[in-house]
Amino acid sequence: MKMAEYYKITDRLVPVTWEECQKAPEETYLARLTRKETEKSRFLHSIGYGAVFGTSKIHLCKVEAYMRFLYGTYLTPDRRRMEDAFCFVFDDRHLYLVEEGELAGNLLCRLKKIFEQENAGTGSVLTAFLGQLLQKDLLHLEKIEDRLTHLEDEVLSGRIAGFEQKIIGCRKEILKYAHYYLQLQDMADILMKNDYGAFSEEDLRALRLLREKTGRLHQEAIMLREYSTQVREVHQAQIEIRQNKIMKTLTIVTTICLPLTLIAGWYGMNFRRMPELSWKYGYPAVVLLSLCIVALSLYLCRKKKLFF
Description:
It contains ten helices and seven strands. By secondary structure, the chain is an alpha+beta fold. The protein has a seven-stranded mixed beta sheet.
């Protein structure tokens, strides 16, 4: 991670130094720090950030309300990448983003280029920052949908090898996104209470829109999970169709061979007076009879359209 970044919040995000923040503590600031760099902040030190929050591991997205501030954590749905996580501390004059990776830094780099709002405060910046988190989520869900569609096409074309591993991977990923959007909705609900008066009416409208967007994304994730269930049912139906075809083939073979089994059993009996046994053409006659029975059976099966 790069060195700490500090911004003065006006109608834009104006880069400043740590020394400038100390000279004008009454101004409104945004800072991006590592856990080690939080030790330099008087505000974070005064609320006991290092002792209470600095050593805790981020497991989910949440916001917790305290007497003087709000504390929140964010974790991407891809929980294997713990560097894509950060926490934030927020009140009406301070917004601290604390991370060890680059997620918040990359979002902040985009945000400072486009952020512009009159009478902006920490609430305005936090709302805009959270909005940046969801910019590409619909594309991610569309990629999952494309994977499910491809799986469905493979199943319908008969290529079902490795299907279970692929569909289970998709369903796990969808479930993570569904939980992720529920957590973001809870975060938005807590922020919309505006306990510290840091959000203007415009900010609260933006938060409502953000909550509605996460709701729509959650519904999209639920629809994808239902679609994955349908794809799984298609796969099961294809397996049953294959089994039915195998059973049909075995039935036809058994039907054709049954008369031959009867003939074999008939002439396998140990009776003394069976004229065919001493007949000169007895063996060729039985062979010819067997071939005629097989030919007749095949003809009848074809006529009844029993072949695939």
